[in-house]
Amino acid sequence: MPRSWIRIPLARPGRRTYVGCALLALCLTGVPAVGAGGGRGDAADRASSAAPRAKETPVRHAPKPGPAPATSRAHTVIGDGSTAYTGPQPGQPAPEKLKPGQKPPQFVVFSWDGALENDDHYFSRFRELAQANNADMTFFLSGIYLLPKAKRTLYHPPQHAPGASAIDFPTDQHIKWTLEQLRLAWEEGDEIGTHFNGHFCAPDKGAGLDWSTQEWKSEISQAYSFVQNWKTNTGFTGIPPLPFDYAQELVGGRAPCLEGQDNLLPAEKSLGWRYDASSPGDFQQWPAKKDGVWNFPLELVPYPGKDFQVLSMDFNFLYNQSGGDVTEGDPAKYPLWERETRRGYLNGFERVYNGSRAPLFIGNHFETWNGGIYMQAVEDVVKDVCKREDVRCVSFKELCDWLDVQDPAVLARLRNLDPGESPDWTTFITK
Prior knowledge:
Blueprint: E1 3-11, E2 21-28, E3 42-43, E4 76-78, E5 83-85, E6 106-114, H1 122-132, E7 138-141, H2 172-187, E8 191-194, H3 213-228, H4 230-234, H5 246-249, E9 252-253, H6 261-270, E10 275-276, E11 281-282, E12 288-290, E13 293-295, E14 300-302, E15 309-311, H7 314-323, H8 334-353, E16 360-365, H9 369-385, E17 391-393, H10 396-404, H11 408-415, H12 425-428
Parallel strand pairs: 6-7, 6-16, 6-17, 7-8, 9-10, 10-13
Antiparallel strand pairs: 1-2, 3-11, 4-5, 12-13, 14-15
Helix pairs in contact: 1-9, 3-6, 7-9, 8-9
């Protein structure tokens, strides 16, 4: 199947630069109709992140048994009181092994790069949307979003001067709002992952694409540190601790620009992380492990009315609609572009929902690009799919839980299915 590649430059929105995005997008020609089998391809994405200096690799605290009642969860304060152990995370589904003849659930993971609650209040909007639609989501926190600008030199990014970052440091108010959303999200069952820190992307010098495993370990240590020491760094001593031990809760992340996974994976594996969402996009397929870590790439979904596929992320639709990294295109086209984005995600969903049941991964940013149409498109998709029969809108961590209890031989057979291929499920799983 012929392929064409498009290199997309780093997007730096003029209105604000809390979140930047760029990617290596793959347009796949001759894409099959929705519901048919799909060809294999590659692609990539970009997002945002930043964080302060940690002196050493974080200690992974041993979990304490016995959940406290939800109405009065006991606190075991950790470190300077920025975090606390309050028992196992509420609202986590119990994973079950597929039974003979059972059709797999349709998993959908909505994830957010950056996870800042700023004046647009998108973090709270989509956290509440998840609650209303039986969904859990993954929020990839950029570490510097808990670090005041006045303390920016606490962050020592690899191959850059102290305090350097490709995204803005937050205001004090935004830090306070973000802390509140992180607390509520975790208590409601959502995952708090990491988007690492400074969001440096190629072709900029010193991008994560060029970092060694040791440099990635430094970046990760700082991502832990900014969450575990936000009280010391901000001076906000009157705010309650985050209700989780981040050394235990952090089990995966997405690298800025989907770059550097080869050297990043050994660092993640050494910390016992369970997954990585930093690989370039691929066709919709059941996941496999890479170097012992679950690999969750963004995926290619059929672009509505076109003969190519697009990466399942808001910025990729923007690139194909308003052109390159133009974040404020022709307002007259916003209604059309919103419909195209919504339909594109649903094309990908329906292909696997009626086919292989491979998980669908949708990545997003809290941005008002093109009048906020990408936010509305994702909201519409959440409302459409998350309450359908056999659909489970979960976090990446919850998907890991389910995959880990399955028969490896069954997963291997599932990976051999084309996206739109629906076997006879009554005989597909025999033991």
